[in-house]
Q: What sequence folds into this?
């Protein structure tokens, strides 16, 4: 009996020998290139653009989440043309110009996302008309601060540069400077209620009272600094902002010990999510800024009473719900806005698409050591009749701003 | 009762080599051969031969033989060896001059090898941990032993931050609930580690802190290598112990003859080294010396946080026999250093100026005189224990300070208007805290016994005086160059703070009474304690605290079941315990609030002026009392043929734990308006009188200690020990506990929302019912399977432990306050109308739908493996792996599945031990 | 009689006089080391040797490499303490165990913040800075085997934990734990022919996280996915990687020692690894399969022994990428796709000659190895493949100097010739630093190499059971037109 068992064993062994030799040249089907690609067809819903006739210009940008690959497509001639892209999860940004029945032209934009997992995919986008307020625009925001010779961060000497990009003089009285409540690098799970397409959630609001308003010529600008003094006296690498038009020093927190320069009028912090009226700019630029004006009949008191924004969001990891309270400013009141973040850290835009459909920022990596001393600045389109610079404003800061930050313009003091 | 303490003698010893040489003249003709039950010779046995006035000593060589000289016809031989214990035998002289002695190895008694904590069978529930369990556990510091308590779980050592002790409670304690760890007392050889005079807090509030003030003993400073046994009393201690609420840790260290012992441990975080030797200087005098060193990092990559612990201890014990009694005099001299050092990391990107070094050098001198009487007089034992502990604590720090803008600071020390001053925006600030706590304890204790009508009374009585004072120079820094720009304190010296003195008298009687086979023992004790020379303004000044302690144990008669006897007993206990407030709570530092009245930062420096209104606030709470804890427990003990089981239900209520509560007051100051000044051509700083001003008021909080923290602990502790089953040489120990711990604030709290509206500070304070209290209840389990293979002297143990379930429930947090007050301090109820007021709507705290939701964590398990093995004579290798395997069951919260991935970070290490 | 003959030793020769020289020959028997694959079935350990022996040594080694794969670094030095013992107990059962502690430094490591590249394949957490890794490893292994009439049973458990970290930015810390449980049985079928089978389960975990101490800026990290590719999203968003590998390794063997002296072992290994980041997102999966056959035939003529040994093995590894989407949720799986493939064909032919005299012991083994390695990315046309032919020889000469002292010399030389090597890496599409890394590794893998090794060991007997030994070892590798790599090691130990 034992011999027979021995024979079977030897047979089994020889069988395994053969399988080994033949399986070495793998014949498994290659994943053919074809099944990894998808054809995307876009449909445009234009009911928000009254009197829409046709597209003059229609460009589409697809950015894949996992690989970071970018795909550009021009659908100006035929908006139903299919776009070929590898499968994946894409962010879709539409920018273009529409021709109305009346022959006028209006800027159009839309942001959306799409999962390309099958061979054929479809996405409907509702286009939004870009609103231009023909008023002040944000030309530059310097939020990174500087690094002293000894290598330590100096967190003051930050400013907003607001420019009159129109052809008439404007008054700064009643101007509001808004800081977003949401952080562009942290996207929480289902904000309820989600209001960004109607209003901007704000974490801090500066207000220039009418009493200290001043007239600004076309092409001229004003500087609103945290402390309007010569910071280079404190730290050699900081800037001389003694010529600022307005400042917002914090006199309420006794321990901050900030200084109120007598010559520079103070903007009022009418709301801050922080105690002691503290209004700080995030030094890696993960927030968005906007300027606005109260419409007729709305005062600081009535805004504080009626525009509180209570919302909640959910932590995906453990299902906890968090309640938060901020204030909101309706998008119609906003004159101009800019989203800021860093390409590597961006998750979502804190401002609605109609105000700014893209985003800009300083540096390409989170915590980029070279970001200090740089700011986000608008591209110059051309020159006005009076020789002053004319800036580009298509409500898409990816196109309108010099990408990933440049030297701050007030590096050597304020020169009008 | 013949004195059973062995009499050993050694003629000379070398300090460095710690080796033993026995020198005895006279001609060596007798030999003694020492063998084990298998006839194998035993080397290194310490032999002493006494006959009449001749005494000889020798050490057996590897043939097991020892030599000695002329003796009378009858002589006694006393042998001592680690593995064979102490034996004594009488011989009569024979002509062959060769005598044989067989020794039975101590370790063959397998049953008593216990590698876990053994439950005390005494009157109060306690865990006893012996030398073998500690050697097998391979701990780095005392905090690793806490795993062996019922409900304990292993955790990675965290040797670069304070390890606070937690007994019978879930949660991490900390925050407002520190009284549990402050109220646990540590005693080493009878000397208590007094933390009442600990002020070691850094001047820089937001710098690194290894703070132990008001937290109690830091367990990482206690090494375990020289400990013989530890008794952790979780229940109600006898009246002889006081100034504690939660538990008592009694550590007894090694004494008596011990050959050279060494231990070297390495794991991912730390390296530990230990060397010790016990000498028998004369028959009645032993000296034990040991050296102990630990070096640890929190994370091997983080070279900024280093912790070093050094320990040298010399302990002597001498026994004098005087007539019918003997007097034992024990002296311990200890030096311990614990140094936390933070170095600036080379990569931090700026010049290496910051330094942090927190050194604590502590010198202990303990003396214990114990007189024992053997006649049948009432007094059995009188003991006087005196301990002196002087610590030299230096916390030195240096920091590059760069203000975030041109900054002004106030240097006033009294309330009133003062001109501040502009420091440079960048400077190096040197600051330090010097503490010199001195603790003296003296305890006289007597024990006696008498019997009346078949009840045996064991009386213990005595007086316990404790003195602790900090004579350090305190917090010192140059006011012009402070470590940060928001200083709320000023330099302060500790030596003008009065001493913390308590006096306590205690009397206790343990009565034993047996009828038929029932055995009853009842302990009733009372401790009276009072703080001495506290000024009369304090309500604690003449408070006498009475602490009754009662424990009843009823052992039922043995019941024969099958071929074994069932032993059973019930123990009940009730006790009230008080923890006196520490010096830090009674004499807190003054708080300085500076409000900027004028900040005229002109370009030209000599026109510049800054003016403050400073308030100096005394935050002492004169009505602070001791924290009281009422402990009740009932325990059932069962034993049957080597199996033993205990189940304890306990209920501890501490309504008056210490907590620092912040309440708000409004402060008034003037805000000067400089807009009217002619800035351009000013030559002198503005004069306050000439400037228009506006009266401003702001609400600022100050924190004060009070008895507002409530910790309510209930639970069931259980443990089962199996006998060491012969076939597998394995013992099963299943230990666990269900705890329900409620942490609550017992007085309403005040909170101010973090928002600024319309350019003004927020002007209302809400009074809310509940702070973030929470209730945690759950069950932990720990099954230890340990196998001892005597053939290769190897001990393997696997422990399967984890949490069976854990429920965390936040005390219901209302979003609306019950009342509020404004700048005027008048308290109003909070009505619905206020919910829509522009400003008062912000008093509604954001309480989300899940804040008050109960979170139920299900089952998790973790497997730890430990191996200790002798590889060559008494050279041993041991190794351990925690989290060899772990699994955390996912759970549902707010109907969302929450995955809990298994951790992929096992904690592992190895040890090389010699004779340990 | 039949049973006791068979019982004597699986290695096949009884030994009458047990002098110190003979015991060393027995303890370090090269033929048994050649049949190592047989003892992967723990049941056969009961016939490993009829004598108990243990050794305990501590050693220091330093390996300076001028030509090296960037992920391995250019220098490694450190200490090792090792104790191993084999103990024959009375009742026909054996115990064996080993304890190893290592404390090393690897300098010049680049593109590699993780450990055990053989386990985690291409899915490394990498950064471009060159750093020095401090490395510690703790390992222990214990086994028991018993023989009951015709059956043999055996079980073995081994655990290895490693930790490596850097203390300059960027600072990875990698911790690994590798648990293997093995059980085997064998049955004496006919005369001394035995068949045996065993199964080994492996559970391996590794977690790596990177910290930065510089407060103003940090270098970028890459979650690599093979041949220069990396996950864009997760490389910027995460600074940790957690690996879980579970595998089974089974084998069947048929062996005879006495008369026919032949052995045939076939084994199959199958393992799966998954990689998680920020301890919740699975981003890669790896599946390994390996088949292998060992055959050996022994001849004993008087004092001469010959052993022919043939190995054929085929290894296949496939990697899967998992893509995510954050459209209307936080972050959820979108799809999976196979993206990476690697295969290795390996075959080895060797003959060992061994001769033992009264005072001399000689063994010599020439061998030939043929290996074909292919690696490719499935979605991008990017691949590389190498085919080697290795000819070499190993020899050992042990001389009894006196009844108490023995000298052992062992040496080996091998020449690796490249039969074919080609690649298509299109490194111009990559980040330049990653491109240079791939090209420098390819250059090394595709060049010929001559490596040689010499070691001298002196044993001295102190007591009947106790011997002291010192060992000095020198190793050299010379890649064509590249500078030489050198290794020097020294060990001091006791045998008892």
A:
């Amino acid at each position: 009996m034992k011999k027979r068992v021995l024979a079977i064993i030897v047979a089994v062994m020889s069988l395994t020998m053969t399988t080994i030799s033949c399986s070495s040249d793998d014949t498994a089907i290659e994943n053919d290139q074809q099944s990894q690609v998808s054809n995307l067809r876009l449909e445009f819903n234009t009911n928000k653009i009254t009197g829409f006739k046709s597209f003059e210009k229609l460009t589409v940008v697809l950015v894949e989440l996992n690989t970071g690959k970018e795909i550009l497509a021009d659908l100006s001639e035929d908006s139903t043309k299919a776009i070929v892209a590898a499968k994946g999860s894409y962010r879709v940004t539409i920018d273009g110009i529409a021709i109305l029945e009346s022959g006028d032209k209006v800027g159009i934009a839309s942001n959306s996302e799409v999962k390309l997992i099958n061979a054929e995919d479809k996405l409907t986008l509702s286009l939004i008309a870009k609103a231009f307020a023909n008023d002040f625009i944000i030309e530059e925001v310097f939020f990174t601060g500087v690094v002293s010779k000894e290598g330590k961060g100096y967190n003051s000497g930050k400013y907003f540069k607001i420019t009159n990009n129109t052809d008439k003089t404007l008054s700064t009285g009643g101007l509001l400077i808004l800081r977003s409540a949401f952080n562009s690098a942290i996207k929480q799970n289902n904000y309820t209620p989600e209001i960004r397409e109607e209003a901007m959630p704000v974490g801090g609001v500066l207000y220039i009272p009418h009493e200290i308003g001043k007239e600004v010529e076309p092409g001229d600008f004003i500087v609103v600094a945290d402390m309007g003094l010569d910071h280079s006296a404190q730290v050699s690498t900081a800037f001389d902002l003694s010529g600022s038009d307005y400042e917002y020093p914090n006199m309420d927190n006794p321990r901050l010990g900030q200084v109120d320069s007598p010559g520079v009028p103070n903007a009022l912090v009418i709301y801050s999510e922080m105690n002691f009226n503290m209004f700080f700019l995030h030094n890696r630029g993960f927030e968005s800024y906007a300027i606005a004006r109260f419409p007729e009949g709305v005062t600081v008191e009535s805004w504080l009473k009626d525009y509180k924004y209570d919302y909640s969001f959910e932590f995906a990891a453990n299902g906890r719900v968090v309640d938060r309270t901020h204030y909101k400013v309706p998008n119609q009141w906003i004159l101009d806005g800019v989203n800021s973040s860093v390409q590597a850290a961006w998750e979502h835009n804190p401002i609605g698409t109609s105000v700014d459909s893209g985003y800009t920022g300083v540096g390409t990596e989170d915590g980029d050591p070279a970001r200090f001393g740089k700011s986000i600045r608008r591209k110059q389109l051309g020159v006005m009749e009076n020789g002053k610079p004319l800036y580009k404003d298509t409500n898409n800061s990816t196109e309108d701003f010099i990408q990933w930050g440049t030297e701050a313009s007030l590096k050597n003091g304020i020169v009008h | 009762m013949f004195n059973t303490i062995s009499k050993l003698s050694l003629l000379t010893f070398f300090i460095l080599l710690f080796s033993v040489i026995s020198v005895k003249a006279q001609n060596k003709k007798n030999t003694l051969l020492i063998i084990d039950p298998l006839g194998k010779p035993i080397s290194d046995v310490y032999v002493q031969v006494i006959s009449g006035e001749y005494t000889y000593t020798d050490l057996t060589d590897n043939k097991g033989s020892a030599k000695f000289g002329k003796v009378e016809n009858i002589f006694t031989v006393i042998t001592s060896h680690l593995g064979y214990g102490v034996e004594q035998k009488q011989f009569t002289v024979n002509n062959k001059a060769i005598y044989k002695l067989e020794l039975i190895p101590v370790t063959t008694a397998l049953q008593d090898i216990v590698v876990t904590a053994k439950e005390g069978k005494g009157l109060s529930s306690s865990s006893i941990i012996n030398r073998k369990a500690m050697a097998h556990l391979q701990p780095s510091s005392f905090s690793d032993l806490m795993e062996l308590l019922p409900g304990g779980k292993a955790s990675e050592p965290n040797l670069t931050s304070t390890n606070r002790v937690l007994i019978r409670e879930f949660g991490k304690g900390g925050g407002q609930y520190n009284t549990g760890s402050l109220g646990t007392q540590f005693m080493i050889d009878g000397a208590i580690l007094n933390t009442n005079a600990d002020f070691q807090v850094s001047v820089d509030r937001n710098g690194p802190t290894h703070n132990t003030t008001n937290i109690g003993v830091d367990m990482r400073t206690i090494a375990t290598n020289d400990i013989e046994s530890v008794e952790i009393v979780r229940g109600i201690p006898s009246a002889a112990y006081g100034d504690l609420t939660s538990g008592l840790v009694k550590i007894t260290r090694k004494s008596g003859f011990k050959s050279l012992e060494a231990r070297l441990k390495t794991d991912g975080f730390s390296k530990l080294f230990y060397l010790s030797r016990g000498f028998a200087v004369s028959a009645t005098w032993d000296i034990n010396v040991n050296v102990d060193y630990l070096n640890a990092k929190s994370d091997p990559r983080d070279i900024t946080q280093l912790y070093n612990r050094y320990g040298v201890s010399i302990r002597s014990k001498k026994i004098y026999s005087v007539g019918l009694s003997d007097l034992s005099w024990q002296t311990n001299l200890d030096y311990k250093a614990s140094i936390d050092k933070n170095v600036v990391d080379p990569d931090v990107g700026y010049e290496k100026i910051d330094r942090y070094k927190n050194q604590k050098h502590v010198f202990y001198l303990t003396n214990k005189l114990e007189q024992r009487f053997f006649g049948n007089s009432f007094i059995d034992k009188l003991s006087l224990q005196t301990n002196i502990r002087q610590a030299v604590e230096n916390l030195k720090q240096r920091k590059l300070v760069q203000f975030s803008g041109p900054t002004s600071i106030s240097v006033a020390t009294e309330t009133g208007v003062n001109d501040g001053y502009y420091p440079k925006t960048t400077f190096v600030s040197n600051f330090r805290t010097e503490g010199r706590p001195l603790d003296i304890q003296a305890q006289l204790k007597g024990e006696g016994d008498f019997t009346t009508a078949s009840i045996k009374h064991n009386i213990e009585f005595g007086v316990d005086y404790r003195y602790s004072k900090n004579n350090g120079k305190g917090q010192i820094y140059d006011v012009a160059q402070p470590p940060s720009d928001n200083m709320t304190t000023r330099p302060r010296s500790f030596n003008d703070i009065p001493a913390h003195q308590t006096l306590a008298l205690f009397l206790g009687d343990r009565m034993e009474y047996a009828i038929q086979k029932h055995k009853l023992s009842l302990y009733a004790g009372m401790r009276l304690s009072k703080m001495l020379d506290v000024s009369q303004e304090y309500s604690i000044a003449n408070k006498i605290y009475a602490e009754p302690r009662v424990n009843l144990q009823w052992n039922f008669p043995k019941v024969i079941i099958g071929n074994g006897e069932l032993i059973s007993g019930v123990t009940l206990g009730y006790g009230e315990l008080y923890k006196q407030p520490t010096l830090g709570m009674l004499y807190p530092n003054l708080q300085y609030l500076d409000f900027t009245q004028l900040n005229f930062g002109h370009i030209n420096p000599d026109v510049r002026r800054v003016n403050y209104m400073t308030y100096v606030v005394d935050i002492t709470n004169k009505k602070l009392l001791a924290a009281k804890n009422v402990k009740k427990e009932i325990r059932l003990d069962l034993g049957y043929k080597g199996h033993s089981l205990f189940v304890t239900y306990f209920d501890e209520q501490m309504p008056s734990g210490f907590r620092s509560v912040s309440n708000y007051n409004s402060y008034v100051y003037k805000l000067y308006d400089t807009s009217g000044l002619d800035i351009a051509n000013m030559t002198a700083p503005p004069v306050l009188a000439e400037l228009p001003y506006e009266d401003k008021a702001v609400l600022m909080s100050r924190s004060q200690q009070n008895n507002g923290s409530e910790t309510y602990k209930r639970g069931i502790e259980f443990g089962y020990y199996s006998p060491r089953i012969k076939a597998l040489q394995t013992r099963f120990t299943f230990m666990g506990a269900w705890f329900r711990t409620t942490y609550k604030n017992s007085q309403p709290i005040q909170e101010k929302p973090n928002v600024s509206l319309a350019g003004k500070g927020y002007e209302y304070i809400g009074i809310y019912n509940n702070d973030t209290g929470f209730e945690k209840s759950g069950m932990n389990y720990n099954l230890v399977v340990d196998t001892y293979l005597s053939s290769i002297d190897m001990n393997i143990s696997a422990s399967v432990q984890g949490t069976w379930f854990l429920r965390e429930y936040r005390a219901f947090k209302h979003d609306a306050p019950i009342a509020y007050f404004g700048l005027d301090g008048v308290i109003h109820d909070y009505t619905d109308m206020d919910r829509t007021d522009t400003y008062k709507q912000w008093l509604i705290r954001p309480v989300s739908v899940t804040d008050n939701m109960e979170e139920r964590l299900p089952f998790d398990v973790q497997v730890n493996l430990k191996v200790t093995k002798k590889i060559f004579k008494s050279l041993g290798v041991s190794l351990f792996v925690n989290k060899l395997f772990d699994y955390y069951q996912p759970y549902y919260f707010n109907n969302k599945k929450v995955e809990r991935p298994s951790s992929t970070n096992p904690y592992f290490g190895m040890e090389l031990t010699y004779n340990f | 009689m039949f049973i006791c003959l068979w019982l004597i030793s699986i290695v096949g020769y009884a030994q009458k006089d047990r002098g110190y020289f003979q015991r060393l020959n027995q303890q370090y028997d090269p033929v048994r080391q050649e049949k190592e694959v047989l003892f992967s079935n723990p049941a056969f350990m009961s016939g490993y040797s009829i004598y108990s022996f243990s050794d305990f040594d501590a050693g220091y080694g330093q390996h300076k490499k001028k030509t090296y794969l960037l992920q391995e670094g250019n220098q490694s030095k450190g200490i090792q303490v090792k104790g191993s013992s084999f103990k024959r107990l009375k009742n026909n059962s054996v115990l064996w165990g080993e304890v190893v502690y290592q404390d090393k430094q690897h300098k010049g490591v680049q593109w590699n913040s993780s450990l055990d590249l053989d386990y985690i394949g291409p899915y490394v957490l990498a950064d471009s800075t060159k750093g020095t890794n401090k490395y510690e490893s703790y390992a222990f292994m214990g086994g028991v085997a018993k023989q009951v009439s015709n059956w043999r049973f055996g079980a073995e458990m081994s655990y290895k934990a490693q930790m490596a970290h850097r203390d300059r930015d960027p600072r990875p810390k990698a911790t690994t734990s590798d648990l293997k449980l093995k059980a085997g049985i064998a049955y004496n079928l006919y005369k001394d022919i035995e068949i045996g089978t065993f199964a080994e389960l492996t559970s391996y975990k590794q977690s790596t996280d990177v910290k930065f101490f510089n407060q103003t800026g940090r270098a970028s990290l890459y979650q690599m996915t093979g041949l220069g590719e990396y996950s864009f999203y997760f490389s910027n968003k995460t600074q940790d990687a957690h690996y879980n590998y579970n595998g089974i390794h089974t084998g069947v063997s048929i062996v005879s020692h006495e008369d026919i002296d032949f052995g045939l072992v076939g084994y199959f290994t199958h393992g799966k690894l998954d990689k998680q980041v920020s301890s919740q997102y699975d981003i890669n999966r790896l599946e390994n399969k390996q088949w292998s056959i060992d055959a050996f035939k022994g001849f004993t003529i008087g004092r001469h022994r010959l052993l022919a040994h043939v190995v054929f093995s085929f290894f296949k590894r496939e990697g899967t990428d998992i893509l995510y989407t954050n459209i209307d949720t936080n972050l959820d799986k979108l799809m999976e796709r196979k993206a990476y493939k690697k295969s290795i064909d390996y075959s080895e032919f060797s003959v060992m000659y061994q001769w033992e005299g009264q005072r001399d012991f000689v063994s010599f083994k020439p061998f030939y190895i043929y290996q074909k390695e292919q690696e490719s990315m499935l979605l991008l046309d990017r691949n590389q493949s190498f085919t080697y032919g290795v000819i070499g020889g190993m020899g050992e000469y042990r001389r009894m100097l006196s009844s108490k002292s023995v000298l052992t010399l062992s040496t080996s030389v091998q020449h690796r010739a490249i039969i074919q090597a080609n690649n298509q890496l299109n490194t111009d599409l990559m980040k330049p630093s990653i491109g240079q890394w791939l090209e420098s590794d390819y250059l090394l893998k595709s060049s010929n190499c001559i490596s040689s090794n010499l070691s001298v060991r002196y044993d001295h007997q102190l007591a009947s059971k106790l011997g002291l030994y010192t060992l000095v070892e020198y190793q050299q590798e010379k890649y064509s037109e590249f500078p030489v790599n050198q290794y020097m090691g020294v060990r001091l130990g006791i045998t008892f």
Notes: Helices of chain B lie at 131-137, 179-182, 583-586.
